[in-house]
Write a structure and sequence with these properties.
The complex is a heterodimer of chains A (about 260) and B (about 260).
Chain A (H helix, E strand, L loop, with lengths): L1 H32 L3 H4 L3 H13 L3 H32 L1 H15 L3 H12 L3 H25 L3 H9 L4 H30 L1 H4 L8 H10 L3 H29 L9
Helix pairs in contact in A: 3-12, 4-5, 4-7, 4-9, 4-11, 5-7, 6-7, 7-9, 8-9, 9-12, 11-12
Chain B lengths: L7 E14 L2 E14 L3 E5 L6 H9 L6 E6 L2 E2 L7 E4 L11 H5 L1 H5 L4 H14 L15 H14 L4 E5 L7 H18 L2 E5 L3 H7 L2 E6 L4 E7 L14 H22 L1
Parallel strand pairs in B: 3-8, 3-9, 6-7, 7-8
Antiparallel strand pairs in B: 1-2, 1-4, 4-5, 9-10
The chains are: A mainly alpha (about 260), B alpha/beta (about 260).
């Protein structure tokens, strides 16, 4: 009986998602027929047409590839630097006391504001794009992982100690596995930060890229393709999120589900 | 093995513990002295805040005493040691490990070969009757089962002393009674020195050879009561006249302390 009712809820969720999508399409359609809103929100066929044009211009694929390279490089750098820094902050108070205020200060500044400074320093091209994404993903992930490490149940560390664990054992057998759920949350937030920084990152004189193209299309009022690009960024974000969810389900199935 | 001759296993000498906080210094323990004999089962009761958990943490080597020392077999206790096993109230199982992985954690820390770790773990999982749950994760177990795993994990390290911090405090009455009976049986067989903290006077009288009553603020030992009820004991022991007599006596003392704290 119980499994039956659970299954029912699962179907409901999918149906809800479908309903949500249909409502979105209706709202979009209403926007597309409005006199003023129609200029910014052309409907599905027009958008697909715009994307077709971009494929014919041989821009879409190189824009997508260029953006993904910047996102992946920036995110990877952000991750490999945020992880050790989060541990240093959790273990050594002076590191935390000095670094944490910096991160909290810079985090509130839009990346676009200091993008220019990065270009002046590094010149135009891919490097400043990657560095900008690196900075943004680093801050988000470092803070998230740091708070995760600080929230580890101290009783588990005590339990391991009385069972004879040394510092190395504690790190590999307790701290690291206990931090995995927070690392995955950090990855999710980091990927999201990487995508939302894309426009700022590609305002630095990039030659291709989804963010860069959205700007140039705006200059020529090509809203069909522009809206297509915007939706594409959303789709990439959703797919990355689904990917992280799959990894999460594999790695943290041991977690107690919070109820209510 | 040496007949009736029982040495002092654990010794607590003049232990003082102070905590420095924002509102001055709190004295959690103020000169505690206690000798625990080889193979003895000791229960400590007292109102919350009397420092009984602090005392256990010092014995475990997880906290340092501000003053005074504790000894195991005459050796000063400094830091944790596998000879002193601990069972916590909140189970403290590693949630990312299965039952068997949890229980073999101690032997693994001793760097024993994997096969031996598994054998030891299986033996103690069998002792607590969880053979069918070897590969379950803690989240799939009930509270009583979790605490059984925690007890098996402590035993798997073959400690000389078991320190138990209100291990059954979070369990419902029936499960608690069942685990008390199981613990009694295990102790009667193995006679491992037990230092058991509880706020449940029934539990203390049922399990212990001596019950230590602590007074609150600052925490110190108020009285030690010998429980002269012969083993083997079980839940039926609770309806014996001598049990009720001792329980009433200890309960009164603890209640007075509780009223003191409330003042």
């Amino acid at each position: 009986m119980e499994t039956k009712s659970k299954k029912k809820i699962k179907i409901n969720d999918k149906v809800w998602l479908l309903i949500s999508l249909i409502v979105a399409l209706i709202v979009w359609f209403l926007l597309s027929i409005g006199e003023k809103t129609g200029r910014s929100f052309p409907y599905v066929p027009a958008v697909l047409d715009g994307m077709k044009t971009m494929i014919e211009r041989e821009a879409l694929w190189s824009d997508f590839a260029s953006s993904m390279i910047s996102v992946i490089l920036g995110f990877a750098l952000g991750f490999v630097t945020a992880l050790p820094m989060a541990f240093l902050m959790a273990w050594y108070t002076p590191v935390r006391k000095i670094i944490e205020p910096w991160i909290n200060f810079i985090r509130n500044i839009p990346a676009l504001a200091y993008a220019g400074l990065i270009v002046i320093m590094l010149g135009i091209g891919r490097t400043p794009s990657v560095v900008l994404i690196w900075i943004c993903t680093f801050m988000t992930m470092c803070i998230t992982i740091f708070h995760g490490i600080r929230n580890i149940d101290n009783t588990l560390v005590k339990a391991a100690r009385v069972l004879g664990a040394n510092d190395m054992d504690i790190f590999f057998r307790i701290t690291l596995p206990a931090t995995v759920p927070f690392i995955l949350t950090a990855v999710r937030l980091g990927l999201s930060a990487a995508l939302t920084t894309l426009l700022a990152a590609e305002s630095t004189g990039a030659r291709a890229g989804l963010g860069m193209r959205i700007r140039t299309l705006q200059a020529t009022f090509e809203t069909n393709a522009m809206l297509g690009y915007i939706i594409l960024i959303g789709i990439i974000g959703t797919l990355l999120n689904i990917l992280v969810n799959l990894i999460e389900r594999r790695l943290t199935s041991w977690q107690e589900k919070r109820e209510g | 093995m040496a007949g009736e001759e029982r040495g002092i296993k654990l010794s607590i000498q003049n232990v003082v513990k102070e905590y420095r906080g924002d509102h001055g210094t709190t004295v959690a323990l103020n000169g505690v002295n206690l000798d625990i004999l080889e193979n003895e089962f000791i229960c400590v009761v007292g109102p919350s805040g009397c420092g009984k958990s602090t005392l256990l943490n010092i014995l475990a080597g997880l906290h340092e005493a501000t003053n005074g020392e504790c000894y195991l077999d005459g050796e000063v206790i400094h830091g944790t040691d596998v000879r002193r096993g601990v069972v916590f109230q909140q189970y403290a199982l590693f949630p990312w490990q299965t039952v068997i992985q949890n229980v073999m954690f101690g032997p693994q820390m001793k760097r024993l070969p994997k096969q031996e770790c598994l054998e030891i773990a299986r033996k103690y999982i069998k002792m607590v009757g969880l053979e069918d749950f070897e590969n379950s994760f803690p989240k799939e177990l009930s509270g009583g089962m979790k605490q059984r795993v925690a007890i098996a994990r402590a035993y798997a390290n073959n400690p000389e002393v078991l320190l138990m911090d209100e291990p059954f405090g979070a369990l419902d009455a029936q499960t608690r009674a069942q685990l008390q009976t199981e613990l009694l049986k295990t102790w009667e067989e193995e006679r491992k020195t037990c230092f058991f903290i509880t706020h449940d006077v029934d539990e203390a009288v049922l399990l212990a050879q001596r019950v230590v009553i602590m007074s609150a603020r600052p925490g110190r030992i108020k009285r030690i009561v010998d429980i002269d009820i012969p083993y083997p004991r079980d839940q039926g022991t609770k309806s014996e006249p001598r049990f009720m007599e001792l329980k009433a006596e200890i309960w009164n003392e603890v209640y007075q302390e509780y009223l003191e704290v409330r003042k």
